Amino acid sequence: MFDVGLGEALLLVVLALIIFGPDQLPKVASQAGRALRQLRAMANSARDDLREGLGPEFADFDVADLNPRRFVRKHLLEDLDDLDQPGPMPAEEPLLPFGERPPYDPEAT
After folding, report:
1. Is 92 in a helix, a strand, or coil?
2. What span, in angstroms and rounded, lies between the C-alpha atoms of 40 and 62?
3. How far apart are CA 20 and CA 35, in angstroms?
4. CA gap 93, 109 in Å, rounded
5. Cα(first)–Cα(last) distance of the chain, in Å?
6. For residue 93, which phi and psi values (nearest 5 degrees)?
7. In Å, what is the CA distance from 84 to each residue of 17, 75, 101?
8. pLDDT tens digit string along 21-52?
9. From the centroid of its chain, how far is CA 82?
10. 85: left (phi over 0), alpha (psi -120 to 50) or beta
């Protein structure tokens, strides 16, 4: 979720020590942890309420599917992944019935 490296994490810890001091830092950390737990509980509750409101027809609904990037990957690019797989190619079907040839227009080409 966050791309924080080791050096950046150490810098954040040092800044927190300087800003809050060693005596206030445990209290601030516990308050931040409590707030994060409450935020997660609220998000889980909202997700469960959404699933309950949608009903049994959408039992397999995943809220993460609403992310546009994941939606495109799942619904549009999934078929392209299937084409990359080795295997027999589907037989070509004629465009016109009874083996008729399409009209030829030399000016169109």
Report:
1. coil
2. 17
3. 18
4. 23
5. 52
6. -100, 145
7. 53, 16, 31
8. 889 989 998 999 999 999 999 999 998 888 88
9. 20
10. beta
